[in-house]
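Lab notebook, design round three. We kept the backbone fixed and only want residue identities now. Task for the bench partner: fill in a sequence for the structure below.
Input structure tokens:
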């Protein structure tokens, strides 16, 4: 569903992502783990087109989107939930979700969105800025989902969120895969969350992938060492 080959991304003269190659099949959840500053957010921004890549190819469901603008990549099937959530604080919950429907041309918020996030139904007329961090994260995911994505990118979804809500988000992502044929890619530092959702884990370090395992073969102690070095 997502295929990335020989991807390079630079800030000025500094190469941040170096010749990355990976594929993610339909209905897989891939977690990309690494410490701060190792390239996770840069990778995600390049996949959605916020940052231009200097080389390489990005394909979604066989279609090359490497030269496409961000809005074109969304139309091709990539949705992005950025670090910090970036919801519209002065719009209501309902209005925030509706901003994602411009792409999919939906007329109504689908019932399955409110089924996944009952708190958003209850708070649909409340301003986004008045929600808790965890509720805003759920809102940002809901907004991404109404674009009907094939690939969902979640950048550090547990950042600044209390443990009980982290479990709720893990449950939602697992439920989502049962409801839709969707590929999910998460950048993360919290191993317990990753182990609850991921089929496969890759560790990134200074723009390179240095370790990869399927979840049932993961050595948690080894991953913790990578995250704490």
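Proposed sequence:
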């Amino acid at each position: 569903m997502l295929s990335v080959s020989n991807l390079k991304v630079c800030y000025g003269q500094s190469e941040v992502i170096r010749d990355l190659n990976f594929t993610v099949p339909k209905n897989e959840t891939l977690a990309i783990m690494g410490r701060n500053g190792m390239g996770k957010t840069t990778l995600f921004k390049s996949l959605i087109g916020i940052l231009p890549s200097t080389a390489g190819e990005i394909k979604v469901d066989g279609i090359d989107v490497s030269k496409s603008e961000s809005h074109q990549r969304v139309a091709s099937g990539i949705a992005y939930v950025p670090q910090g959530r970036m919801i519209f604080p002065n719009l209501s919950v309902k209005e925030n979700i509706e901003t994602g429907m411009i792409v999919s041309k939906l007329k109504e918020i689908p019932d399955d969105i409110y089924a996944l996030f009952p708190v958003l139904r209850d708070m649909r007329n409340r301003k986004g800025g008045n929600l808790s961090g965890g509720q805003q994260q759920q809102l940002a995911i809901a907004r991404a989902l109404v674009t009907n994505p094939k690939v969902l990118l979640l950048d550090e979804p547990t950042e600044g969120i209390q443990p009980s809500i982290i479990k709720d988000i893990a449950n939602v992502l697992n439920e989502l895969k049962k409801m839709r044929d969707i590929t999910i890619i998460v950048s993360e530092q919290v191993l317990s969350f990753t182990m609850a959702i991921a089929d496969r884990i890759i560790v990134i370090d200074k723009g390179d992938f240095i370790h990869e395992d399927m979840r049932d073969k993961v050595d948690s102690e080894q991953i913790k060492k990578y995250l704490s070095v």
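Keep this in mind before ordering anything: The chain has a mean pLDDT of 93.
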